[in-house]
Amino acid sequence: xxxxxxxxxGKDAELQALQYLQQQGLCLLAQNWLCKRGELDxxxxxxxxxxxxxxxxxxxxxxxxxxxxxxxxxxxxxxxAAQFFLLKEHRWADHPCRFDVVAIxxxxxxxxxxxxxxxxxxx
Length: 123
Known about the structure:
By secondary structure, this protein is of the alpha+beta class. About 30% of the residues lie in helices and about 40% in strands. The relative contact order is 0.20.
């Protein structure tokens, strides 16, 4: 069986994260929302809170794994994209917001461990 491309693995991870978060009661507002400031993987609603979800997938845990891959520069890009989203999508502008991370890592067994970190960083 051919090895999956990293782009396809990323899409699969996003779908897995979306399904998991929906099972937890969150509702999808936008997926792969693009703007000049970057991309938001998932924008979801948790009660009345707008949740900007960054999905990170790593096949191997070396170099710190999925959670460690969100450095200061990546957080700044996410914050700018989220601000742009709230400017463009006026109906959500007065809602509380938070940034979550869903980190998915392959295991030696061939399964994927999913770690949902709520309120992962501040804007």
